[in-house]
Amino acid sequence: MTVKGGLKVRQHPSKGFYVENLTACGVNSYKEIDGKINDGTRNRTVAATNMNATSSRAHTIVAITFTQKQPNETGQSMTRTSTVNLVDLAGSERADSTGATGDRLKEGSAINQSLSSLGNVIKALADQSMGKKKVVVPYRDSTLTRLLQNALGGNSKTIMVRIYIFYFQ
After folding, report:
1. By C-alpha distance, which of 126, 147, 150 is closest to 18?
2. Contact, 10 vs 20, CB < 8 A?
3. How large is the average pLDDT for residues 36-44?
4. What are the chain's domains?
5. What's the CA dihedral at 138, 142, 148, 154 to 10 degrees?
6. How far is CA 60 from the centre of its chain?
7. pLDDT digits (tens, 9 = 90+) for 65-84
8. Read out DSSP for 40-72?
9. Is 0.85 topped by the overall pTM?
10. 40 and 34 in contact (C-beta within 8 Å)?
11. What integer pLDDT is reported at residue 79 of this predicted model?
């Protein structure tokens, strides 16, 4: 599957879903992490709509992998890894409110579809946690849910924070 910008999402038998040719950068401080996030923000796709002059046209995922290496009781080197995914979801849109046409309309439709898919995955996971049997979690319904599968399911911990930004003139 191809997304704008030429990046392709692939599936590996042991790694799961991943973005082909994605650059991983080693960092050693918050300042370096912040710099990489700012680089990504500069490359983010935005466009004007009637609702927002700099409307995000895609979701953004920043994955930070922490690696801890230390010897165990026998002196063998042990490695622990943990990944934190910071996800900025593009907002849902009503086509008539945004005045979107052409490519902007297609982007808005794709955003809404992926947000709906994410909602369906969260609902299925909630149903599973409540003990419902034979629940199928529809991770494959969107690229977003495929990439976040490891962060949403299994023994992961997920927190959603909703941030409202108001502009006054």
Report:
1. 147
2. yes
3. 80
4. 9-152 (3.40.850.10)
5. 10
6. 6
7. 889 999 999 989 999 988 88
8. HHHT--EE--SS-TTEE-S-EEEEEEEEEEEE-
9. no
10. no
11. 94
